[in-house]
Design goal:
With 291 residues, the chain is mostly helical. Helix content is 75%, strand content 2%. It has a two-stranded antiparallel sheet with strand order 1-2.
Amino acid sequence: MKPKTRATLFALLAAALYAVNSPMSKLLLTRIPATMMAGFLYLGAGMGIFLFGRIRRAVGKGHAESPLTRKELPFTVGMVVLDIAAPVCLMLGLTKTTAANASLLNNFEIAATAVIALLVFGEAISPRLWGGIACVTLACVMLSFEDMGSLSFSWGSLLVLLAAACWGLENNCTRMLSAKDPLQIVTIKGIFSGLGSLIIALMTGERYFDMFYMLLAMLLGFVAYGLSIFFYIYAQRDLGAARTSAYYAVAPFIGAALSFLIFREVPSGLFLAAFGVMLLGAYLATEKDGP
């Protein structure tokens, strides 16, 4: 299998795993405070991937990867800090908007990742991808208003967009680490980001001690963040940050479909219009120009 074909499959698998995040987090947020929820998700990702790596090595499936060094420290710190901010914003946003709306708004991560990849890291962006970015951004603007007639702005949508912007910058930090050991990257990302979120939660007065729901949140984190990020990093090696993020665009559509099934949410006309624009944007973003 060609490296880019394998990388594309990894990107799509990462997207499918992440898609369960918004609807399942929305359910768990009825039990767990938002900032603690963000902490449990990332702790589950870090601890789960650490155990996953140990099992792989025990059965002889693991292979040598380059470890992180002091040279990558600025990008590692940036990755952790942004991974504290992003899920906290997302969890808070989910308490103020629908899971389907949040799922689609997550696609703003494509635009943020691509623009940062261009401006900061000099990554090439095709005209077709720019068209996709424009459509995604327009759809996000549409989804950010609860009622276009009265222009009632949704603060929940703003928080989700802020989370997507943080992840866009974080994707580019991770891109600078993608040649290193993915298991080590996800373990560091998960454990330190999770602990950071839990410290913030405790400092702001959040408390939660129901072990069953804590473990459910950590299991969700292992699947939606840990395994998803693991495959995402492998995809970035051959596709780059902007292109990998574009393939990742299928996740919000899967998440929105799951949200409608789980919560029996009836989509509004505005949502359906934004969905169409977003779908066009995702198509433009994932299709290559030429051979």
